[in-house]
Design brief:
FAD/NAD(P)-binding domain; 9-stranded mixed beta sheet; single chain; 418 residues; 6-stranded mixed beta sheet; 12 helices; alpha/beta
């Protein structure tokens, strides 16, 4: 684009989840007059129930080597961490075929490189925004424990652990007793663990999005609670965002609406294999037993994060239509998995939740300029690393919008790769 800054230009960001809010803040820093649009309040969709970890070590994709052979049986196994809503299977089959095509070592290595390139800069992207908003206390950098109860699970995780290690992720191997020294409430079944000192967490992902959005409006940004439905296209691209309550004029559009980005991108001539990988969690208001950091189980497939309003237990991946009714029995199953890891936990008064992660079959987000319209930027498809990479994604969107070369190579996330 010809202009090199946003002064005097209007930008509209569609989607007020954590990625959209961070993008809006970075556009403000570039001088744009920014309008942020969402059908709900900031952070009230998938960001609300985020597991809360800043996953520096989350470069390992879902599409691991050998999964293509295991996946059919896993979908039928009631104890497996992956579920499929069978009535949605015909629509999801093309996605799964592409996904299974990435379940080989060369693809996994490339995906891990692409994910880690973003994750390694996650604090660089977030810290300026947290400092501006006076919200530094909302992110704790106290590490993560990855625990194992059996030698079999530890052996099965060896490739993923090595994948991280080869990319420079720091990790310390611990015995079960050493893990309990760090987290005394861990049960005796834990035999081995790894400590990841670079992993952080937020004390409340919903409030984090809200605090950053409040700073956005305090700085002059406009927040509209509307549903974007279409665009008016002019000679230079999108001229207006059409909503159920009128239109919004714009010089630049950013689509950062999570799983709902797909129909909006289709209106602009781009079709993405973006589906809802729905995550479930339970919130325990009075757990009585609270770890001091994130804990992930290597065989129970649950992540446990202490937050200011209780203990969050997250897990499961359900492939289904984004608006399909939740199956809260899947969330309740997490309670038994948690109790086996932390025997003294109190689960009374738990609150279940479900939200749709936006997932692409190659486990890499889309970050870049629309191949059809030069004034449209895409920022979606972050699956499990949306919170972690929201800041650096927003920074990249700001740089692209201002017409500057991005501060890192974004070839792996280009929109025209599908």
């Amino acid at each position: 684009m010809s202009k090199t800054n946003g002064k005097g230009r209007r930008a509209t960001v569609i989607g007020a989840g954590i990625v959209g809010v961070c993008s809006a803040l970075y556009l403000q820093r570039e001088g744009f007059a920014v309008t942020l649009i969402d059908r709900r309040g900031p952070g009230e969709e998938a960001s609300t129930g985020n597991g809360g970890c800043f996953g520096y070590a989350s470069c390992v994709p879902l599409s691991m080597p050998g999964l293509a052979l295991k996946a059919p049986l896993m979908l039928l196994d009631p104890d497996a961490p992956f579920k499929l809503r069978w009535r949605d299977a015909p629509r999801l089959t093309p996605w799964f075929l592409r996904f299974l095509g990435n379940c080989n070592k060369p693809s996994v290595e490339d995906i891990a490189d692409a994910r880690f390139a973003l994750l390694s800069r996650m604090y660089d992207g977030f810290e300026p925004l947290l400092a501006q908003a006076g919200a530094e206390d909302m992110v704790k950098r106290d590490g993560m424990l990855y625990v194992f109860e059996t030698e079999k699970a530890l052996a099965q995780s060896a490739y993923g652990l090595n994948l991280r290690r080869r990319r420079g992720v720091k990790m310390e191997e611990l015995s079960g007793d050493q893990a309990r020294e760090m987290e005394p409430a861990l049960g005796p079944s834990v035999k081995n663990a790894f400590f990841f000192p670079q992993v952080g967490r937020t004390v409340n992902p919903l409030r984090l999005a809200q605090v950053l959005a409040r700073h956005f409006t305090d700085q002059g940004g406009t927040l509209l609670r509307r549903q974007a439905t279409d665009f008016e296209i002019g000679a230079e691209g999108a001229r207006q965002v059409l909503t159920g309550s009128g239109s919004v004029e714009c010089d630049l559009v950013v689509i950062a609406a999570g799983v709902w980005s797909r129909p909006l991108a289709q209106k602009l001539g781009s079709n993405f294999p973006l589906v809802a990988e729905r995550g479930y969690n339970v919130m325990l208001p009075d757990p009585r037993v609270t770890p001091s950091r994130c804990v992930i189980s290597g065989e129970r497939y649950v992540g446990i994060t202490p937050m200011e309003h209780g203990l969050r237990v997250a897990g499961l991946a359900e492939f289904a239509a984004a608006d399909a009714p939740p199956v809260y029995a899947r969330a309740e199953r997490l309670l038994g998995l948690l109790a086996g890891l932390f025997p003294g936990v109190n689960t009374a008064g738990f609150e279940p939740w479900m939200g749709p992660r936006p997932s692409l079959p190659d486990s890499r987000p889309v970050i870049g300029r629309s191949p059809k319209h030069g004034n449209v930027l895409f920022a979606f498809g972050h699956d499990h690393i949306g919170l972690s990479t929201a800041g650096i994604t927003g920074q990249l969107i700001g740089e692209l919008a201002a017409g500057r070369p991005p501060s890192m190579d974004i070839e792996a996330y280009r929109p025209d790769r599908f």
